[in-house]
Design brief:
Distance between the termini: 57 Å
Helix content: 55-70%
Radius of gyration: 19 Å
Order of helices and strands: HHHHHHH
Shape: elongated
Structural class: mainly alpha
Length: 159
């Protein structure tokens, strides 16, 4: 159902759980910006000062917000993809807390969300979702090959 301009979306009290007081009028922008950075709906809702339930309800009822949500997720997906590529190029396998970056899970996450990313990217550019999916598949395969080459090189060195 599309939102009628100027009409507020009614939110049941149960959907306001976790919201403290009045909502910031710019919550949509705050939410979408954080979603583009993190791809994390829960943290994005928290940052915007809204409940996760409100975010999903508004996404269901406002087609433009739903479109922007997809675009933000596509951007977040691209950030993760670029982070994996950067780490592979620089040999950066350490996390902030000195743990080991989990390349396998990052690639699984990229593969699992490629369809959503493709839909979001097709909203940004004038290309079909199939073209975007094919591009993502090529990038994931390239990342897998790089990891395999790095593992083989490490094995040859006896690491």
């Amino acid at each position: 159902m599309a939102r009628v301009p100027g009409r507020r979306i009614a939110i049941r009290p149960s959907l306001k759980q976790g919201e403290a007081g009045p909502i910031n009028n710019n919550w949509r922008r705050l939410f979408l910006d954080h979603l583009a950075e993190t791809s994390n709906v829960t943290l994005s809702a928290e940052t915007a000062g809204i409940s996760v339930a409100r975010a999903y309800k508004v996404r269901r009822e406002e087609t433009e917000f739903a479109r922007q949500w997809l675009v933000a997720l596509a951007e977040g997906y691209l950030h993760l993809e670029m982070e994996v590529v950067r780490r592979l190029r620089e040999g950066d396998a350490k996390t902030k807390d000195e743990g080991k970056f989990d390349f396998a899970n990052a690639i699984r996450l990229l593969a699992a969300h490629r369809d959503n990313a493709a839909r979001g990217a097709s909203q940004v550019r004038d290309v079909s979702a199939a073209e975007v999916r094919a591009s993502i598949d090529r990038k994931i395969e390239d990342i897998r090959r790089r990891i395999a080459r790095q593992k083989a090189a490490a094995e040859r060195r006896g690491e």
